[in-house]
Write a sequence for this structure.
């Protein structure tokens, strides 16, 4: 087998390259050349017939072909430029995420969306339709937004751009067509495997496309379907399908691999079945980093070449916790049937990985084997906290997850974490549902909530195996008292232990002369909260020396950015508020003043620095701003 030096297709009807076979090959045979005699000693060429080949198109059709910056461009990624009040995005993380998450709770278009704050506000959608609806919604609410490319989103997410898929949501689907003869009972009595497309003509392509549309509709709405090539010698007709949802595309690929779809034509002249299904691949976009950089896998090896079999290096990282010996997933005990636990905890997850990426990874490794996924989210940063809970219905899926993920790094993420899998404390779908249905986490933004999915076992029970992997609505609360207690606890303590200053931290550590909860204590608490957020000063008029002190305090409390202090303009306003709440400050006093001291004691001069409050680590008057303290402190 070799390549033909010249194509026999007309210029206006050049067939597309099959995505799974690369450049279309030309087969050589010494017997015949499409029924024509050839000279002895020459090798005739057999090419596919032109009658079933698609016409070549010139206009952009799929999302990856649209030109960014034009009116036709759409994307699954949206960047918020400014808020309705004119504030630019990317200045204050707390206030911007709080406003965005509040909006995401109000509209169902954000049910399958994930926010990201990285010196800017970004939203990733699973569906193109939801992305377009959300952009129209934002414009109606007077937000300034724009579509961005997957590469711009990956850069903002600090993700490796080499792992970006140009063709996300697109699938290649090949149907095997075979001409048949049927009897009076409508059963096939004779097939034509040598000439499978003998009874198929150009008019039958519309019916075949209709069958493709019917198959794909089982999994979700499609944006476009295109006939790309026909291989008459093998009886294959290939289609390129773009789904609205990435999740629907992944479900279609995995489901059709496990169970093919097949049927007969209306006039019973041929039968068809799905034989090849997978992600659509093709040349990278012109603005893609992959167009100039060779593709590499997560181990730095070039893609497209045979690789040596990876050696599994055992690790003893699970010995860090004494309980991990009991909670470790062991293949031998599962195969013997002595360990029947089904819920695992996946740890060491990169903080920027969202639940949609986690589900795509699970579908790739153990499709249809799980029914519950909960990636725990930090509500303040909108990032995960490093672990997730997964409940399996098939132990083969659990073992596959351990074999493919445990003790391995995460492809595409700049993280040195290696995944670890162990058993969770709460076991079983029923126990997990009962725990979370009455939890305050179900009142949070949708991307923070646990999710239920239909497994293969559930699909067989309801006689709908094509629905495997589809999300199921979470049960509503059945214990209002328990839900109210959970919400009250989340308001006072929070879902996560406090590890820094904040409103909750100040409330728990505020001293009071009255019993907690009494009317006088509530008045005092409200006054303290009002003073901490609405002080009689403007943050824009803070003197430079005080800004330097705040930068130093912020670095001591929360760490520095690349070994240098974080500039004042990039420090969250809530942290600046906490600083002033802990350090007395007056707006009308922008210069050091004499400390009147305590009656009966010696007055303390302003240049005598006393270590006090959160700035105790700041140096003395030897520094340019070290001698300054508000009110003489």
């Amino acid at each position: 087998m070799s390549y033909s030096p010249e194509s026999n297709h007309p210029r206006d009807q050049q067939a597309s390259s099959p995505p799974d076979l690369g450049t279309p090959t030309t087969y050589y045979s010494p017997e015949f050349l499409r029924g024509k005699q050839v000279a002895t000693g020459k090798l005739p060429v057999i090419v596919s017939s032109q009658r079933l080949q698609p016409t070549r198109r010139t206009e952009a059709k799929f999302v990856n072909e649209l030109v960014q910056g034009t009116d036709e461009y759409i994307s699954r990624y949206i960047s918020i430029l400014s808020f309705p009040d004119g504030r630019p995005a990317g200045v204050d993380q707390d206030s911007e995420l709080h406003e965005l998450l509040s909006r995401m709770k109000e509209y169902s278009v954000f049910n399958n969306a994930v926010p990201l704050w990285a010196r800017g506000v970004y939203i990733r959608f699973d569906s193109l339709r939801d992305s377009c609806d959300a952009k129209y919604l934002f414009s109606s609410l007077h937000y300034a937004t724009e579509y961005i490319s997957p590469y711009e989103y990956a850069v903002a997410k600090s993700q490796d751009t080499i792992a970006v898929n140009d063709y996300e949501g697109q699938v290649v689907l090949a149907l095997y067509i075979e001409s048949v003869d049927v009897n009076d009972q409508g059963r096939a009595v004779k097939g034509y495997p040598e000439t499978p497309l003998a009874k198929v003509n150009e008019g039958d392509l519309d019916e075949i496309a209709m069958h493709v549309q019917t198959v794909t509709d089982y999994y979700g709405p499609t944006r476009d379907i295109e006939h790309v090539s026909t291989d008459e010698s093998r009886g294959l007709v290939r289609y390129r399908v773009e789904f609205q949802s990435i999740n629907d595309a992944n479900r279609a690929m995995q489901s059709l691999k496990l169970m093919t779809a097949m049927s007969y034509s209306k006039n019973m002249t041929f039968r068809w079945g799905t034989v090849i299904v997978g992600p659509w691949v093709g040349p990278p976009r012109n603005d893609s980093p992959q167009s100039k950089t060779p593709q590499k896998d997560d181990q730095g090896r070039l893609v497209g070449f045979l690789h040596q079999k990876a050696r599994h290096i055992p690790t003893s990282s699970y010995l860090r916790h004494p309980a991990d010996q009991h909670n470790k997933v062991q293949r031998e005990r599962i195969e013997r049937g002595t360990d029947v636990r089904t819920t695992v905890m996946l740890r060491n997850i990169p903080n920027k990985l969202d639940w949609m990426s986690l589900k795509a990874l699970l579908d790739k490794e153990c499709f249809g084997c799980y029914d519950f996924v909960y990636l725990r989210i930090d509500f303040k940063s909108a990032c995960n906290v490093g672990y997730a809970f997964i409940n399996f219905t098939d132990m083969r899926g659990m073992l596959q997850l351990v074999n493919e993920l445990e003790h391995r790094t995460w492809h595409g993420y700049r993280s040195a974490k290696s995944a670890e899998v162990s058993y969770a404390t709460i076991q079983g779908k029923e126990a997990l549902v009962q725990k979370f249905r009455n939890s305050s986490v179900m009142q949070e933004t949708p991307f923070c909530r646990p999710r239920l999915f239909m497994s293969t076992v559930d699909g067989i029970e309801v006689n709908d195996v094509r629905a495997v992997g589809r999300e199921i609505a979470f049960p509503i609360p059945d214990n209002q008292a328990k839900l109210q207690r959970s919400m009250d606890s989340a308001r006072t303590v929070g879902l996560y232990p406090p590890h820094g200053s904040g409103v909750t931290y100040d409330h728990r550590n505020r001293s009071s002369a009255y019993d907690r909860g009494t009317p006088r204590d509530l008045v005092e608490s409200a006054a303290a909260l009002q003073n901490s957020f609405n002080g009689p000063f403007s943050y824009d008029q803070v003197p430079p020396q005080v800004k330097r002190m705040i930068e130093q305090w912020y670095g001591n409390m929360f760490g520095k950015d690349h070994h240098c202090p974080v500039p004042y303009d990039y420090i969250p306003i809530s942290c600046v508020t906490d600083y002033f709440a802990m350090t007395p400050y007056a707006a009308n006093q922008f210069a050091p003043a004499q400390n009147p001291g305590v009656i009966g004691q010696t007055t303390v001069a302003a240049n005598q620095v006393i270590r006090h409050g959160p700035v105790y680590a700041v140096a003395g008057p030897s520094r340019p701003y070290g001698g300054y303290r508000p009110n003489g402190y």
Observations:
- The first helix runs from residue 93 to 106.
- The domain at 76-148 is CATH 3.30.70 (Alpha-Beta Plaits).
- The longest strand covers residues 170-182.
- The chain is about 25% helix and 15% strand.
